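Minutes, project check-in
Item: structure for the 362-residue chain
Input as provided by the requester:
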Amino acid sequence: MNKLTTLPDIRFTVAWPIAFLLLLGPLALAAQEAPVKAATAEILSDTRHIERVRAAVDKALAYLANQQRDDGAFDGNNAPNALALLAFMGRGHVPGRGPYADVLEKGKRFILRSQNDAGVFVPERTASSGPMYQQALATLAMAEMYGMDPDPELEEKLRKAVDCIVNCQADNGGWRYQSSAGDHDLSVTVMQIVALRAANNAEIGVPESTIEKAVAYVRSCNIGGGGYGYQPGGGPSPQMSAAGTVSLQLLGYFDDPTIPPALKHLSGIPVAWGTDGGVSHFFYFHYYAIQANYQAGGAYWADWHPRVRELFLENQKPDGSWDNVPGGAENAGLAGVNNVYWTSMASLVLEVYMHFLPAYQR
């Protein structure tokens, strides 16, 4: 694949030490925000807020490590497997050293073994369940890991996975469940976009035409003057409005005219532990919504993150995990039989304060 990475207003390659320095960004923003009254009625210092987040994530990672099987998987589906690995890397853990070196290595090996001849990272027993969700998340995890672990097998299979994503793009720029070009929706498309950004960060080339078509598709899902829909012509939803916004932001289109109305739409969604405001896929929504507000910065970020932080901290279980919200669509049939999916997603939401994953940096 040709390496074409001239994209508008964005720097894809981020030096690793900068990730540590960027930790100061949210602290500076938090210092400017109006005091937020937590449910405990305790007003804490900014440093104490970050300490609470770190402690919660550390408990979550200990829980996730205990769920890993001997073969390296956390679940039979590579979506939870990839999200769990991203949660460890999002806290700054890297392959080859530290307390979770084996967890990351075993998880990586499982995902690499699952790749088929077409480049799809899908274990055989889940091959019929819409592989492109798993493909995108596994490719994202492997791309982030490749930036820390120059393993030749990892590079070879990552390149094959990226080629697969590029080749599966529909003519109008979207992607959908199956690994064949043609159909499309924004839910699957945003995941491919994030995976391709991570691959570009890792110097795995992505054709410029692929990015241009993806941007056009995201714009086509915008509902005039509001949020984004599941497909072009559909009504807006919280999940898709968050996904569409962060898609354009991560590709460098911060000034796209569809973004401010979408951010306004997001700002009206209740921050509550449940499905209020039409949030059917609670963890999916918050995974993208906190990124969209972080990328927007300013008042958007200052208003959003303290409420979401407290919501997740207050609903963590004593063992470090999170349960699904009441009435949420991300049930065990979708997310797996244990709390790996929900706990990984909650960890990634809180890890927005840490900035170790280059794919989500500004």
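Outcome recorded: Residues 16-219+295-360 form a domain with the Glycosyltransferase fold (CATH 1.50.10).
No further action items on this chain.
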